[in-house]
Amino acid sequence: MIEQQAIRLDMKQVTIEFPGVKALNNVDFTTESGTSHALIGANGAGKSTLMKVLSGAYNHYTGAIWIDGQAVHIRSPKDAKDLGIQIVYQEVDTALIPYLTVGENIMLDDTVNDMGKRQWMNWKRIHSNAKATLERMNVKVSTKKLVSELTLAEKQMILIARAITKECRFLILDEPTAPLSHAETEELFRIVRDLKKNNVGVIFISHRLPELFEICDDITVMRDGEFVIKKRIADTNQNDIVEYMLGKKLDDQFPKVPIEIGETNFEVKGLSDSDKLRNIDFYVRKGEIIGLAGLVGAGKTELCKALFGASRVVSGERVLQKRKLSIRNCNDAVKQGLALVPEERRKEGILVLESVVSNLTVANLSKFCAYSTFLQFGKEKKEAQQLIQDLGIKTPNEQAKVKNLSGGNQQKVAIGKWLTTEAEVYIFDEPTKGVDVGAKKDIFKLISQLAQQGKSIIYASCELSEIVGITDRVYVLYDGEIVKELQTSATNEEELLFYSTGGK
Amino acid sequence: MSTGQQRQVKAAKSFDFFDFLYKYGTIVTILILIAVFGTMSSSFLMPSNIINILRSISIVTIISIGITISLSVGGFDLSVGSVASLANAVVISMFVWHSQNSFIGIIIAVAVCLLAGLLNSFMIVKMKIPDMLMTLATMFIIQGVALTYTRGATVSQNMVMPDGTFAQGKISAFFSKIGQVPWIIIIMLVVVVVVHIFLNYTKHGRYMYVIGGNMEAAKLSGIPVNKYRVLAYVLSAGFAAVGGIMLASRVMTAEVNAGAPYLMDAVAAAYIGFSVAGAGRPNAFGTFVGAILIGILQNGLVMMSVPYYAMDIVKGTVLAFALALTYYKQK
């Protein structure tokens, strides 16, 4: 066998700006073919952006990319593919066409770009090429099967297969293991090892530290759009990496006031859904703010939705003030004293086409109705004006359409609508996402005020600094399970991140 | 700073022609049509002709109100024409074949149609079939049921029954009043006003618009979304039934597929109504204005001796314009 020459890939001084943010600032990244390289960083560190630059998704960056000592020009996905750089994104379904066969999906690039003047499909060639690729990967899936019939793991294999049908020197996998089970992850790692043997450089983006230590040779840590450090995996350990990811602490101001914590108010026992969540147990007391910490994909949003009846719960019970709740849908949840501020604000939290007043009263419209049927516009308006004042919502008047407000003010509306209900438990799912600093502070203040009134708050976020800043107690989620309960006063971001990334 | 202010003043002053057209185009069109037809035909503006127009649009308006309700929850109901046919067939057969009184006849016809509406809502809400496709299927199913029920023939008084005898049942004088002026117009106006109040001044109407605007957010606000969607399709079928019964009273027979031609006009009226006076969403008053526009157009064109068989070209074009206005605005 001929000794294969390792090819070097260098990204030098890469900088990219989007309106208002410098997403990458003079980042250097170096890897070689035939190795697997972990790229890690907290949310917003710029890992995905860097890999998008490498795969040609952006054309307005500055800096240089060198392959094998030669400067190369990558400004479009085609440039990157021609150089043998392939990427498999996390959302596999966006890249596959469900009602075409496995073979057609694998050979899609070929069909789209390399048909030239040919007009007729050569099915035999497509299926034999696809089959050869799958055999090379040792994946046993028929090329005649429809993609819509495959499991998530198989779909990912198909995308990897598509990436290596052509010459592939570097393969970027963006969070490939997030949706996979343990056995499926093992299968993926086998393929990664095979690829390495064939002199492919695999770049692995992941939040799960134990996995990276299992499969990778090198690791690069990024933070806030900057390169932090590159190390051999063998020369480091999980704790060090966590420290590099966090860096120095940010001194955020959280308006935390001491609140008297009462008796247990809301309790969840053995909650599971059909998909992600397994056996969730937790409780929250009156006046207490508990945090649900965890990285993207840990199941925080799924848990918030399951609690609120927005997704199906298979087993387990919810108890509010010693009364067992029966929640089959969100309507039941609202009636029984729960409130949810969902993650996807524009899609789920507010009614963008409606006015501020309609938004603020929608959760408890009966309160503003005569004979619980006829709307009382005056009463509605008065309450809305009061809420706008209390929450500091910046809007020309209460009839303005919510779509014209800024992100922070929209979020205040999404929270404000629950203040008209007599909710006991408030669930916040990433409430500060896309919210400016000033509004963030207002939102924290509002949450503290609710706790002061003896409400129970569940605060889910992947921003660990916020969890540390605002909560009294934290549950850490990892892969759909609560892995740790911590007192906030006795923990810090390092410890939270350690458990969030699967540390034990 | 000062340049920014200047720009704002300029923007406020500049007259947005498209926006004006969107909001008041329908009403302006109606006024232009009245002016044109009024000058071309002396009888167009006679009170008798105005009443004639109102009478001619009453059935379309009521069926269209049903579509408006289904549109308000973000749905669509193509089966209303067939439901109207079914109501027409059932109510006439109740009189002619079974010699029932008006009250029983109407109740049974409405009940049968509400069942059809429940079928629609079950398939759309529970089985999650896209509304347009499902109601396309039920449009044919219900049309087929109506045809099978009448054995593909017209039902009328003194008709020949399969055993060779003549049908004995009579249509009551009370029932025949429903389809005549002034009652047919009064019923239409009552329906428009009641549904307008329902959609704009009650909790339920607000919920329906909220659901139509963003179903996911409505669900997460605790609105019983499915209940309201079911209600919308049932109401849609209910108003189609009322339309069919009024049609029965108007013509006193049950022709084959008598309700089918109303579908197109009703859809057009509801979509024209979207933009009237800048509502930007399906609404009862707008639908009424839409029906008036179609009614005037049809009446005026007949007076100008445009043949009936060319009428669909005009109506289809009007619908296409209304859709263009609605969707171009939404981008």
Structure report:
- The complex is a heterodimer of chains A (504) and B (331).
- Chain A is an alpha/beta fold.
- Chain A has three domains: 8-84 and 167-246, Rossmann fold (3-Layer(aba) Sandwich), CATH 3.40.50.300; 250-337 and 422-504, Rossmann fold (3-Layer(aba) Sandwich), CATH 3.40.50; 348-421, no CATH class.
- Helices cover 34% and strands 25% of the residues of chain A.
- In chain A, helix 6 packs across helix 7 (152-165), helix 10 (238-246) packs across helix 19 (493-500) and helix 16 runs parallel beside helix 17 (437-452).
- The longest helix of chain A has 16 residues, at 182-197.
- Chain A is globular, with a radius of gyration of 25 Å.
- The model of chain A has no long low-confidence stretch (mean pLDDT 87).
- Chain B has 331 residues and is mostly helical.
- Chain B has one domain: ABC transporter involved in vitamin B12 uptake, BtuC, CATH 1.10.3470.
- In chain B, 74% of the residues lie in helices and 0% in strands.
- Chain B has helices at residues 2-13, 17-40, 47-72, 80-96, 102-126, 131-149, 173-178, 183-201, 203-213, 215-220, 225-251, 260-273, 284-303, 311-330.
- In chain B, helix 2 (17-40) runs parallel beside helix 13, helix 3 (47-72) crosses helix 12 (260-273) and helix 4 (80-96) runs parallel beside helix 6 (131-149).
- Chain A binds chain B through residues 308, 310, 329-331, 333-335, 340, 342, 347-354, 358, 362-363, 365-366, 369, 372-375, 417, 421, and chain B through 201-204, 206-207, 209-210, 213-214, 216-224, 226.
- Chain A: Keywords: ATP-binding, Nucleotide-binding, Repeat, Transport.
